[in-house]
Fold this protein.
Amino acid sequence: METNYPSFGFTLSRFVDGKVMFLEENGDLGVFDAATGGRETIVLPE
Amino acid sequence: MSSRSAQTFASVAIAMAILLTSGCDGTVGQRLILGAGEGRVVIVEATVSSPLDVIAVYVQLRPPAKRIFTVDLTDGSVTTIQPATDYSSPLSFGVSDGRRIIGRELLTNSIVVQDAVAGDVKRFMEGSAGYHISATDADMGLALLRVSDSPESTSAILLDTQSGQQRVLDLGLVNYFPVLSGDYVVTFGTLRPATFVFASLNWRTGGRRILATSESVRKSAVIGSEVFWVAEASAGQGNVALIARAASITCPQDLFLQSPRDC
């Protein structure tokens, strides 16, 4: 599979269910869909 | 000096070194993804705010990691538990398959397995999981433990996190951060003479395969148990990732050197 892959930093990212998980700068969880290029944020507790 | 005292002394020395190299700004790490799987992502939050905290962390007066967040990707819900030990320290680093967290406990030299939602704890290999043992990945109830008792070590241990049953694996190369994906252990490491490769081992059958051998492999990294390798290369304005899954293991070994394509 070929995809444009943002530079999240490999060591801080994980891949599950076709999506790349990474931590946003504010500590929330970012989710990047490798297939669609879509991106969303899941808010974590303060 | 007893072995325990020597370990404690070394731990405090390392802790102070980390504090000093962190710039003494009061913060050593914030949040770290320990792992993902089964539709969940597990994140540890670790905040150390003073030199005394750092020392306390490494002599195990209390766990330094403040909270564990387990995110259910199906609905975005977040569960928070208290960590059983320090999963953010390089000396006791934690990994997760989404359901459990596996790390090493310094005080007992054991492998801690904690339920990522309920928080329940089991301990295995008590007294024998020293500094040479480190958890590197977990998948479907199995934990992969790297063994680094010598610079030439090519060993790893597969630990059943429910029964405690262990299987010693010879990965066949000096390995850095092996990952586990179903029946396969995939390793980035070096062969003799020093050649960087990605290689796989089917731990059920013992079958081995070199997936890629190239200078460009140096720019690659394994980022999760569902991904064997990600090759980052310059491609116009963005980065190109070649994402190979378990099914791709049947592809020709020179796939990596060709244009990225689905296999």
